């Protein structure tokens, strides 16, 4: 017979276990990275004298007076982006041509030398203000390569570049990204020298010092993007997609023959898929221009809404983010074709994912952690990121059955892990009930922040089963959804 005191102790112990969440697995995202994942789709604006030269990369010798948009309208650009479902904007404050879009004190090659706003303009401020006014996050891109600056290639230039970053970090509010290109020298104007300059990118920029002493201190919420992170990695291409199996973790590797991994040395074989059980949480950004080029060219057209939706599935739908290049024309606005493409794409995503067809369904899981409702399988249908279905430590391949009151027709499956506990799932499968038996309709691998699957043909059923078929540890699934493509 168990004594009352012993019974109380046993109940307390069981309750304590039931309240204990699963132990984190592997590298974990910082809060700023969790917020980045939730952003999902954002834009990268390229607009410098290069636009007026009808080039992709400016040489650095364009007359500042060439930068003279006839009707710049930051709100028009931001509202078009918002209609496209973009939740953030990164402005190229300085591209490789070296022209600064803000009144910097570091170089005369800046917007105050142009006719824009009578020489008193600040395009970084106008875009930042418009973005925040309409609820979009704001970030900056400042190219380390400067084809105009006479000091480029010397130690003095690093102080200039860091001061440019300091100005951008301190004068334009909180940033969600600090975006760093991997371009590392070449031919340029360089103050009139008109020559080719090479630098050792493993030592010249001193990225560790810059990111530690400037970015982290002045903009702690900013995600640092480059080929190798620190917070967000390049996908390894400019096609707008990552591998179907893509891990949010990465162990950066240097290029062959070099001893340190730095921007400009992306490991092309590693970046698109990440590193399973990698040392750091460094998810992928899929950057791709809305048109063919990053800058506006009159002969180009934007990608179709159908193509953009496909890229969404291959980026956001594989645990990454989609970064669309937006190119204002010589007016300083997005072309009407771009606006229309963005709006149609945004509507497609919004309408498709408006309603989870199984949100009100019943769920029955084979295991719930500690028999505690905190970790109930119902959590995967509640539409909340911070609740999740978790299993006991020794239950690594569970399943849950979703039972509906009537049949539904769907062709899109979504699955999300509670990434604050790491990326745990390695394989999963989804089945539909057909007649009197289960039929597997999809099997996949990595999940992470979000996995979206578009089925080849729609499925109609009244019962669905989710199976986690491979995981090194117990699972923590935050969302499971079934949707019908609106197109």
From TrEMBL:
<keyword id="KW-0326">Glycosidase</keyword>
<protein>
    <recommendedName>
        <fullName>alpha-L-fucosidase</fullName>
        <ecNumber>3.2.1.51</ecNumber>
    </recommendedName>
</protein>
<dbReference type="Pfam" id="PF00754">
    <property type="entry name" value="F5_F8_type_C"/>
</dbReference>
<dbReference type="InterPro" id="IPR000933">
    <property type="entry name" value="Glyco_hydro_29"/>
</dbReference>
<feature type="region of interest" description="Disordered">
    <location>
        <begin position="252"/>
        <end position="277"/>
    </location>
</feature>
<dbReference type="InterPro" id="IPR000421">
    <property type="entry name" value="FA58C"/>
</dbReference>
<comment type="similarity">
    <text>Belongs to the glycosyl hydrolase 29 family.</text>
</comment>
<feature type="signal peptide">
    <location>
        <begin position="1"/>
        <end position="18"/>
    </location>
</feature>
<dbReference type="InterPro" id="IPR057739">
    <property type="entry name" value="Glyco_hydro_29_N"/>
</dbReference>
<dbReference type="Pfam" id="PF01120">
    <property type="entry name" value="Alpha_L_fucos"/>
</dbReference>
<dbReference type="InterPro" id="IPR008979">
    <property type="entry name" value="Galactose-bd-like_sf"/>
</dbReference>
<keyword id="KW-0378">Hydrolase</keyword>
<keyword id="KW-0732">Signal</keyword>
<feature type="domain" description="Glycoside hydrolase family 29 N-terminal">
    <location>
        <begin position="37"/>
        <end position="350"/>
    </location>
</feature>
<feature type="domain" description="F5/8 type C">
    <location>
        <begin position="372"/>
        <end position="470"/>
    </location>
</feature>
<dbReference type="InterPro" id="IPR017853">
    <property type="entry name" value="GH"/>
</dbReference>
